[in-house]
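Suppose you are handed a protein chain with no further information: no name, no annotation, nothing but its sequence. What can you learn? This example shows the usual starting point.
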Amino acid sequence: MDCFFFYNRYMKKISAVLIFFLLIAFSASAKIGLGMQGDLFLHSELPSSTDFSFKDGDIRSFIGDSLTFASNHTPWVFALQVKGSPWYVGFTADNWFVYKTISRFADYYLFWGVSGGMEVEGVYGLNTGARAGAGVNVFLAERHLELYAQAAWNPYFGVNLRRGDGDLFFVRPIHFPVNVGLRVWL
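A reasonable first move is to predict its three-dimensional structure. Written in structure tokens, the prediction is:
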């Protein structure tokens, strides 16, 4: 059986199992946020290009595919994303080392962390990298609804697993994801 056929066919089941185990692992001490967000990426890909471009030239929105875990006991915030067209599973682990209140409803934060992901359709790539950034969030409905915006510098490297899709290895030293969205905290 071809490995890529397996991922395409069973992607929803694999995602559900991952989410289930993450819920079990963090449910004792974590707050869980479900949400949707729009993403915009400014990046340059090496070695094939030194041009700066917006990925897909527009804001790509993903509804209901992000799961966020946070705890009052640690500054770490973990997120899992499953995106379609092409199918991509990604994660981030960010340390919010500064978290300050602007007003009763709004806060800002600075973070550093790591990211990783796997594209399971198209080029079948794996990637990982470091992150540093800042964001703001606004809480409504007794802190159960969060509106947020954040930007990060997220250089990363990876490997394309399918042969014939260009370079085997790739590096994106200039990669700035900007995310805007909302979460419902359970």
